[in-house]
Structure formats: structure tokens, C-alpha cells
């Protein structure tokens, strides 16, 4: 897990001073507008194609309300992948939808529009939310085809997709809206924030209205809504984060490269997933079975190394969602893929990299690793030394 590092106070100051001068603190003030316009330029969208919001969840809710509206008796269902962060389901539920969990593809952990069309009864479905798992791309053209064929509204949860949208805007952006999260743990962060992106400027207007009490150009509430506006203070962090993005992005990519060279010569390398395959805030190990995953978890835990099964074993296992409608979930279920994904704690540390050790807390700037740390996984021993270098031994 990335240890967040957002812009330091000095970098925020010039932007914060503008807030002092204008005394505008929210309601799409000058900083929020500037942030939206700079993001639009960054992604090659029309200036109004970016709607900044108070969180990724708020952006998702705004996009759902503007695209599908609230659930209706005829269309009460939202199809959501079981393998995602809980916010995907929370957003659909907040708009009144009853959730139906479906499984993800074995290769990329995402919903497959063709399989959905071929194998599912879509009666009563008013909304589908494909998720860019771990910040991978969601194919805009494939989902537009699905939408056009079925008439079902589609909203993409691309919470962690900042980087892939930056590198592949034509593949990921279009008429269907995509919500990004700027939560501190994402590669590009402001603390709490997000935005919804689309090439459809009318949809963008409806999204802006949906996160502003249904107001647009007047104080008349014209649509289903929430208060999901981004404050000027968070916009200031966003502007400073954009100022330093090239540098931060480069540092994060070099952390992924650091892990890769450390794992060279071990079987872990081919199971390792990091930037640019996924967002640079993730460092993942893909295990082949649940037993593999448990073995790796034990090795990491035994060495005091933090890790997390990032999307857990599926949304259907959360207490609140137990008993909800779902198809069989062989890929998501623990026996298969979700039990296969572990996420190291990954700390960006002034350009160097290190793995957090809970047993041996890292004190001071120049201690990168505990004195010695060994992980054994499938007969491979990974040794982490205290001299800021990490390497992997061959077969034991
Ligand atoms: C897949 C996914 N969807 C939605 C969200 C919600 O974003 P936020 O925390 O900014 O509301 C997150 C991240 O937290 C996420 O990972």
C-alpha cells in the first residue's frame, strides 16, 4: 500500500493565498474551476468535460444520477462486479439500486460486456458499473456497444485509473462517464476528492448539477442530487499535485522498477503486477491458488511485512451485502482469484523504496529496511537488507 505523500505546505501556499484573497471556499470557486480546466487539458477533454467532486464516490453517484437517474420499479437493478472496493456498490445503492453481483474475467479482473450480454438475464437492469480493477483500463468502445445494444446505462468506476486515462485517453474516454478518485492512497491524490470525466458536454452539465443539489445556473432544484462539491482547499491541493505530477509519477514508476529488479531471478517476478500494468500505487503478487496466497501471507506476516488482500474476497462477503442477488462467483471467490491477490505495503521514500516492517519500525530517514528480513515463498528466499538494497536469492 502506498504511503501517501501529498504536496508539502510550501507548495500549497501560493494556491491557498488565492483563497484568502477571494474568500471563496466552495461552490465551484475559482480554484475548483482552474483544477477542472487543467485536468481537462491533461486528459485532452473539452474544458467542461471534467466535473470535480468531493470524493470518487460522490463523482460516481453524480455520474449515475446524471446517466441512469435513480432506480425505478421497472429498472431496480444495478450490475456490479463482486471484485472491487465497496464504494462501487455503495454508490449504486445510494441511488436506490438493488445490487446484483457478477463475476469478473479471470485475466484482467474486470466485467466482460460480451459475457454479460451472452449469459445474463438483463431484465430489470437499469445500470451496469464496470470497474477498472487496480487502475487498469476499461474499454470505452466495448461498453458503448453494450449500452447501445441494450439501452442499459453504463457508468465506469475508474477510481484508480488516473494514469491509464492519461496514457490512453482515446481508449478510456468517450460518451460514457468515468469516475476517478483522488483519495490520498491513489497515485494522484488530494486527500479526499475525485472527478467525473466525459466527452459528452451535456452529460457533464447534468453531472455537475447532480453533485450540486440539482442546481445549475439557478437555485431551482432540477434533478436527483447530492452535495458532492469539491472545496477550494482540496482544489488547492489538486493544483499543487498537478504542478508536481511529472516528478511524483516518475518516482512512483521507479519504485515499481525497484521491486521488479529485486524480484529478478525468482518465480515471483512473473506473478508481480505493478506500474505501468496497473496504477503505480499498487504492488501486487498474483498467486495461483488460495493455498499459495495463504502461504505468502504467512511468510509476510511472519516477517512483519504489511500486506492486504486489497478487494478482499468479494463484496458479497461483507455483512451488509450478505444474501444479496448474485451469480456464481468462481473467479472472485476465495478459492480462486481474489484469494490470489496480495498487496504489499509500498512506501515511497524520497526516491528510494522500502517495505514497511511492523516488527521493526523504520526510524529516521536513512534506515530503509530492518537489518535483515527473509521471506520464503515456494522455496524461494527473498532477502531484504538494511543497506537500502533489496534482492532475491535463487531457489533454496
Ligand atoms: C474501485 C473504487 N471505487 C470507488 C472508490 C471510492 O473513491 P473515494 O474513496 O474517493 O470515494 C475507490 C477508492 O477508494 C475504489 O478503489
Brief synopsis:
The protein is an alpha/beta fold. The chain is built from 13 helices and 18 strands.
What is the name of the CATH superfamily of the largest domain?
Type I PLP-dependent aspartate aminotransferase-like (Major domain)
CATH architecture of the largest domain: 3-Layer(aba) Sandwich
Mean pLDDT: 84
Read across the widest sheet, the strand sequence of neighbours is 5-4-2-3-12
CATH uppermost class of the largest domain: Alpha Beta
Bound molecules: pyridoxal-5'-phosphate
Structure notes:
Mean pLDDT is 84; it is low at 334-396. By secondary structure, the protein is of the alpha/beta class. The chain is 34% helix and 18% strand. The chain binds pyridoxal-5'-phosphate (PLP). The site of pyridoxal-5'-phosphate has 14 residues, from helix 3 and helix 4.
List the helices and strands and how they pair.
Layout: H1 9-22, H2 30-43, E1 50-53, H3 56-67, E2 77-81, H4 86-94, E3 98-102, H5 113-119, E4 125-128, H6 140-150, E5 153-154, E6 156-157, H7 162-167, H8 169-172, E7 178-181, E8 194-197, H9 201-210, H10 232-243, H11 245-263, H12 268-271, E9 272-274, E10 283-286, H13 290-302, E11 307-308, E12 325-326, E13 341-344, E14 346-349, E15 352-355, E16 372-377, E17 380-385, E18 390-395
Parallel strand pairs: 2-3, 2-4, 3-12, 4-5, 6-7
Antiparallel strand pairs: 1-8, 7-8, 9-10, 10-13, 11-13, 14-15, 16-17, 17-18
Helix pairs in contact: 1-10, 2-10, 3-4, 3-9
The protein binds pyridoxal-5'-phosphate (PLP).
Amino acid at each position: 500500500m502506498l504511503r501517501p505523500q501529498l504536496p508539502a505546505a510550501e507548495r500549497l501556499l501560493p494556491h491557498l493565498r488565492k483563497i484568502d484573497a477571494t474568500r471563496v471556499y466552495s461552490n465551484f470557486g475559482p480554484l475548483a474551476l482552474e483544477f477542472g480546466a487543467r485536468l481537462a487539458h491533461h486528459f485532452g477533454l473539452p474544458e467542461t468535460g471534467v466535473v470535480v467532486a468531493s470524493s470518487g464516490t460522490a463523482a460516481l453517484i453524480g455520474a449515475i444520477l446524471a446517466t441512469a437517474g435513480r432506480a425505478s420499479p421497472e429498472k431496480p437493478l444495478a450490475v456490479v462486479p463482486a471484485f472491487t472496493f465497496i464504494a462501487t456498490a455503495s454508490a449504486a445503492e445510494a441511488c436506490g439500486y438493488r445490487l446484483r453481483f457478477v463475476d469478473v474475467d479471470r485475466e484482467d479482473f474486470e466485467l466482460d460486456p460480451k459475457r454479460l450480454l451472452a449469459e445474463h438475464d438483463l431484465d430489470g437492469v437499469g445500470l451496469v458499473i464496470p470497474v477498472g480493477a487496480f487502475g487498469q483500463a476499461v474499454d470505452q468502445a466495448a461498453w458503448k456497444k453494450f449500452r447501445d445494444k441494450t439501452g442499459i446505462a453504463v457508468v465506469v468506476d475508474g477510481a484508480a485509473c488516473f494514469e491509464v486515462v492519461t496514457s490512453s485517453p482515446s481508449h478510456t474516454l468517450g460518451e460514457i462517464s468515468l469516475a476517478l478518485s483522488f483519495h490520498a492512497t491513489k497515485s494522484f491524490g488530494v486527500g479526499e476528492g475525485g472527478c467525473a470525466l466525459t466527452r459528452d458536454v451535456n452529460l457533464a452539465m447534468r453531472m455537475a448539477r447532480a453533485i450540486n443539489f440539482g442546481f445549475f445556473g439557478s437555485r431551482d432544484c432540477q434533478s436527483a442530487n447530492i452535495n458532492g462539491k469539491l472545496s477550494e482547499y482540496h482544489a488547492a491541493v489538486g493544483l499543487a499535485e498537478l504542478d508536481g505530477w511529472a516528478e511524483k509519477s516518475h518516482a512512483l514508476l521507479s519504485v515499481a522498477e525497484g521491486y521488479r529488479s529485486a524480484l529478478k531471478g525468482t518465480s515471483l517476478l512473473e506473478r508481480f503486477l505493478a506500474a505501468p500494468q496497473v496504477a503505480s500505487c499498487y504492488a501486487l503478487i498474483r498467486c495461483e491458488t488460495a493455498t499459495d496466497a495463504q502461504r505468502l501471507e504467512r511468510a509476510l506476516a511472519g516477517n512483519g511485512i504489511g500486506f492486504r488482500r486489497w478487494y478482499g474476497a468479494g463484496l458479497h462477503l461483507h455483512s451488509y451485502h450478505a444474501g444479496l442477488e448474485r451469480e456464481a462467483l468462481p473467479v472472485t471467490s476465495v478459492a480462486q482469484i481474489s484469494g490470489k491477490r496480495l498487496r504489499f505495503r509500498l512506501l515511497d521514500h524520497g526516491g528510494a523504496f522500502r517495505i514497511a516492517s511492523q516488527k521493526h519500525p523504520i526510524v529516521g530517514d536513512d534506515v530503509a529496511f530492518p537489518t535483515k528480513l527473509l521471506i520464503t515463498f515456494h522455496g524461494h528466499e527473498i532477502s531484504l537488507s538494511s543497506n537500502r538494497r533489496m534482492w532475491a536469492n535463487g531457489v533454496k
